[in-house]
From TrEMBL:
<protein>
    <recommendedName>
        <fullName>UDP-glucose 4-epimerase</fullName>
        <ecNumber>5.1.3.2</ecNumber>
    </recommendedName>
</protein>
<comment type="subunit">
    <text>Homodimer.</text>
</comment>
<keyword id="KW-0413">Isomerase</keyword>
<dbReference type="GO" id="GO:0033499">
    <property type="term" value="P:galactose catabolic process via UDP-galactose, Leloir pathway"/>
</dbReference>
<comment type="similarity">
    <text>Belongs to the NAD(P)-dependent epimerase/dehydratase family.</text>
</comment>
<keyword id="KW-0119">Carbohydrate metabolism</keyword>
<keyword id="KW-0520">NAD</keyword>
<feature type="domain" description="NAD-dependent epimerase/dehydratase">
    <location>
        <begin position="3"/>
        <end position="252"/>
    </location>
</feature>
<keyword id="KW-0299">Galactose metabolism</keyword>
<dbReference type="Pfam" id="PF01370">
    <property type="entry name" value="Epimerase"/>
</dbReference>
<comment type="pathway">
    <text>Carbohydrate metabolism; galactose metabolism.</text>
</comment>
<dbReference type="GO" id="GO:0003978">
    <property type="term" value="F:UDP-glucose 4-epimerase activity"/>
</dbReference>
<dbReference type="InterPro" id="IPR005886">
    <property type="entry name" value="UDP_G4E"/>
</dbReference>
<dbReference type="InterPro" id="IPR001509">
    <property type="entry name" value="Epimerase_deHydtase"/>
</dbReference>
<dbReference type="InterPro" id="IPR036291">
    <property type="entry name" value="NAD(P)-bd_dom_sf"/>
</dbReference>
């Protein structure tokens, strides 16, 4: 039996595939390569190029392979882009979940682990954020993912498809051997942008706002290493295999770092100056997002290995400094 990884050519998906392959699992990857990279997919995984919104394509994959469970990463994930193009997010993210759940139902696949997000909470009612806190997204990206969580809930009620929704906070870093890492075009995320400034590929970092309600005025985020995230997905599959009920888990380090603190940490790790300037606020950014992730630790048995942002940044730097052009496959 194989694990189907939808979006396995993307940043987080490719690290998940690498981890599953390390554990001798049979892996089937589905990806339309709209933002992912073929070179990021472990060669031991079987790859089908296609779109999760494509009924016939998914049916073909489910008919050709013996799929035991699905791990779903195939989605757009850029908050500012979602503010400008909301329908793109509802079409791909929310629409993709409909087809995927239909295909699972048609082929009697009953387990899905889903890549959800802290953005489903919107402006937190308190910090750290608990899974039971209210979910009122303030951007279309978060809304599209909340709708996907709700679809899984009703598919569970109707068809008995059990799910785990993993609500990530900020993911960063790369596989420690530097063989795969983060490569978005255009890049919008803080850590890879800081790495690009350190590499000399950008002149400076723009810090989006310093008048937030946080200790140094810049946004506070909770960073998790991408391999620790992959491990949480593997534990979530185990949780579902053991017959447990559907539920959501936060995945964070429970410690917040401000944008200025991340910049300082990156200066220490890289030994580079990394020039930065203040820029206006970016729409859709809550002041702070920090997770209460005790449930993932106690119920799933999750033990993140990277508990220091310097260590996370060190792995990101290894990938960026050895792959100055990322996967070097842009058309
Ligand atoms: N950020 C920034 N400059 C950049 C990119 C991001 O100041 O060039 C800030 C952004 O406003 C947010 C934090 O870095 O406060 C993390 O943003 P990112 O896009 O990495 O992740 P998000 O929190 O949106 O998922």
């Amino acid at each position: 039996m194989s694990i189907l990884v939808a979006g396995g050519a993307g940043y987080i998906g490719s690290h998940m595939v690498a981890r599953l392959v390390e554990q001798h699992q049979d892996v089937v990857v589905v990806d339309n390569l709209s933002t992912g990279h073929k070179k990021a997919i472990d060669p031991q995984a079987k790859f089908y190029e296609g779109d999760v919104r494509d009924h016939d394509f998914l049916n073909h994959v489910f008919e050709s392979e013996s799929i035991d469970a699905v791990v779903h990463f195939a989605a757009f994930s850029i908050v500012p882009e979602s503010m400008e193009k909301p329908l793109k997010y509802f079409d791909n993210n929310t629409g993709g979940m409909i087809t995927l759940l239909e295909a699972m139902h048609d082929h009697d696949v009953k387990k899905i682990v889903f890549s959800s997000t802290a953005a489903t909470y919107g402006v937190p009612e308190s910090i750290p954020i608990k899974e039971t806190d209210s979910q009122e997204p303030i951007n279309p990206y978060g809304e599209s993912k909340l709708m996907m969580e709700k679809m899984m809930h009703w598919a569970d009620v109707a068809y008995g498809i059990h799910f785990v929704a993993l609500r990530y906070f900020n993911v960063a870093g790369a596989k420690p051997d530097g063989s795969i890492g983060e490569d978005h075009g255009p890049e919008t995320h803080l850590v890879p942008i800081i790495m690009q400034v350190a590499q000399g590929k950008r002149d400076e970092l723009s810090i989006f706002g310093d008048d937030y309600d946080t200790p140094d005025g810049t946004n506070v985020r909770d960073y998790v290493h991408v391999m620790d995230l992959a491990d949480a997905h593997i534990l979530a599959l185990k949780y579902l295999n053991e017959g447990n009920d559907s539920r959501a888990f936060n995945l964070g380090s429970s410690t917040g770092f401000s944008n200025k603190q991340m910049l300082e940490a990156a200066r220490e790790v890289t030994g580079k100056e990394i020039p930065a300037k203040l820029a206006p606020r970016r729409p859709g950014d809550p002041d702070s997002l920090v997770a209460a992730s005790d449930n993932a630790r106690t119920i799933l048995g999750w033990k993140p290995q990277f508990d220091d942002v310097h260590e996370i940044i060190k792995t990101a730097w290894k990938w960026h400094s050895t792959h100055p052009n990322g996967y070097d496959d842009r058309k």
